[in-house]
Automatic annotation (TrEMBL):
NCBIfam families: PRK05610.1, uS17_bact. Pfam families: Ribosomal_S17. Keywords: Ribonucleoprotein, Ribosomal protein, RNA-binding, rRNA-binding. It comes from the Bacteria. Part of the 30S ribosomal subunit. This is Small ribosomal subunit protein uS17. GO terms for cellular component: ribosome. One of the primary rRNA binding proteins, it binds specifically to the 5'-end of 16S ribosomal RNA. Belongs to the universal ribosomal protein uS17 family. SUPFAM superfamilies: Nucleic acid-binding proteins. Gene3D superfamilies: Nucleic acid-binding proteins.
């Protein structure tokens, strides 16, 4: 089964080897037929501490690394393929 891949913006890089990524999803409300925006924060593993606040990154599912971290930041070459 393929791993999920999401795109988002780094909102925090204060933790060592971890970034917090805000991912936005848009959908049409079933009754009101308006476009609704929902955001969610994901903790992702960033081995080299290479990403800073404001960077747009791709994250993919990975093994659990801590209580909150279940995502890994993809390298730029891999992100270009998707």
């Amino acid at each position: 089964m393929p791993k999920r891949v999401l795109q988002g913006v780094v909102v925090s890089d204060k933790n060592d080897k971890t970034v917090v990524v805000k991912v936005e999803r848009r959908f049409t409300h079933p009754l009101l037929k308006k476009t609704v925006r929902r955001t969610k924060n994901y903790h992702a593993h960033d081995e080299g501490n290479g990403h800073k606040v404001g960077d747009i990154v791709w994250i993919e599912e990975g093994r659990p690394m801590s209580k909150l971290k279940r995502w890994v930041v993809r390298d730029e070459a891999g992100a270009a393929e998707a």
